[in-house]
Amino acid sequence: MLLEIKNLHANVEGTEILKGINLKVNAGEVHAIMGPNGSGKSTLASVLAGREEYEVTEGEIWYNGKNLLELSPEDRAREGLFLAFQYPVEIPGVSNTNLLKTAVNEIRKYRGEEELDAMEFLELLKEKSKLVELDQKFLSRSVNEGFSGGEKKRNEIFQMAVLNPKLAILDETDSGLDIDALRIVANGVNKLRSKENAIIVVTHYQRLLNYIVPDFVHVLYKGKIVKSGGKELALELEEKGYDWIKNGKSEVT
Ligand code: ADP
Ligand code: MG
Ligand code: MG
Questions:
Q1: Which residues line ligand 1 (CB under 6 A)?
Q2: What domain range includes position 239?
Q3: Residue 249: pLDDT band with limits 50, 70, 90
Q4: CATH number at residue 82
Q5: Judging by DSSP bridges, how do beta strands 198-202 and 30-34 pair with one another?
Q6: Structural domains in the chain (count)
Q7: What is the ipTM of this complex?
């Protein structure tokens, strides 16, 4: 198993947001996590990334045979975990190319592989930028600085393609994308799909899942996974909306 989350509870600023998450992800699988705004989807992604403001109070996360919560955010990245955030950060003064060169070679060193030389690295960038139809001029620009919302999302998928992660988590990479950008992003993600790696797609809307067809769909609501199913669950949510889940919960309680 690539990722196993057991009874995960997490606080943000003293408030419990995640209230007992259980999730198993195998290599080769694509999981979608859906749910209304404020459910804790981004909180879950942030905990996986190891963001400091998020305090795990209970539970365990196992990733690729390692206790994820004991790894620094840098080591998580070196272990092949990649996160595309809902709000990608801008890094003025650091070009896309330099950021990726450092990251790629860090990962290779960690794996005991030889670093890529300048030519090999440029070839890799060229190939992957074509994949996401990213104009070459973005390579030399500062990371995300002055990029439009859609360009930032596309750049995230480009970074993902270059890094070739074992587990990629995409937090609402679809929000703010027009239909063409959506297709490009989905295409980039689909190219990454393989038997060796897994992808968790976090989304509020079903739309993206027409292009990235998930093996499993989970609904996160008020910090818990309240429903899991196959790809048809996303269509059911599209049809019935989240009130169905919310009402279902209120009938139970
Ligand atoms: P989603 O991604 O599903 O929309 P979030 O994980 O962003 O949900 O938010 C879940 C809850 O946690 C919300 O009530 C939100 O206000 C709160 N929250 C998330 N991050 C922070 C933070 N850094 N500080 C305070 N509250 C936060
Ligand atoms: Mg939100
Ligand atoms: Mg969110």
A1: 12-13, 17, 35, 37-43, 53
A2: 3-252
A3: low
A4: 3.40.50.300
A5: parallel
A6: 1
A7: 0.93
